[in-house]
Design a protein that fits this description.
About 10% of the residues lie in helices and about 55% in strands. With about 180 residues, it is mostly beta strands. About 15% of the residues are buried.
């Protein structure tokens, strides 16, 4: 019985020695890991919808009213070529009618998540989904260019083509100009 007890004890310590060298901490320096690819950046911008086309006609900016959007978003970059973006855009509309006092109002809130395809020389393509509080929905292809990079901020502009459906209104396609900056 004493012999079996010694064998079990010896096997137990051998088992511990094998697993402690395989899974335990060692005095060796670990291999350097690859740098993290996930980079999170926030941004702020201004957007002006220049023109909207639908079967009801063409509406241009500054004709009857002026719209300005203030997109705020977060980009999550998974690597040098790909990321995702979450953007929320409140839109303010200013009216100036003949014979009445000018006024303004918050006109719409847009939530438009998208995928970022990063190209060479600061060019990006961002296809976005679009969900508006006015009841419209659709998609917005965005063509983006970073024109100035500093240590703290990237300055960029975008041209986008919002395509919208729903809310008992005809389908429409527009053209927007967006100027913004991303915090590094």
């Amino acid at each position: 019985m004493k012999k079996n007890h010694c064998c079990v004890t010896l096997l137990f310590f051998a088992f511990i020695a094998i697993f402690s060298s395989s899974y335990g901490q060692s005095n060796k320096n670990p291999e350097p890991s690859a740098p993290a690819n996930h980079v999170v950046k926030g941004y702020f911008s201004f957007i002006i919808p220049w023109v909207t086309l639908s079967k009801e006609g063409t509406t241009t900016e500054f004709e009857k009213y002026t719209n300005i959007g203030f997109p705020v978003g977060i980009n999550i970059y998974y690597n040098q070529r790909f990321g995702i973006s979450y953007e929320i855009t409140p839109l303010v509309q200013w009216y100036k009618s003949e014979g009445s006092a000018p006024f303004s109002k918050t006109n719409n809130l847009l939530f438009d998540p998208g995928i970022i395809f990063r190209g060479n020389h600061g060019f990006n393509f961002v296809p976005r989904l679009a969900f508006e509080t006015q009841g419209r929905y659709g998609f917005t292809p965005v063509f983006n260019k970073v024109y100035l990079q500093t240590k703290d901020v990237d300055y960029w502009f975008s041209i986008s083509f919002p395509t919208r459906f729903g809310n008992n209104a005809p389908a429409s396609v527009g053209g927007n100009l967006q100027v913004g900056f991303t915090f590094n």
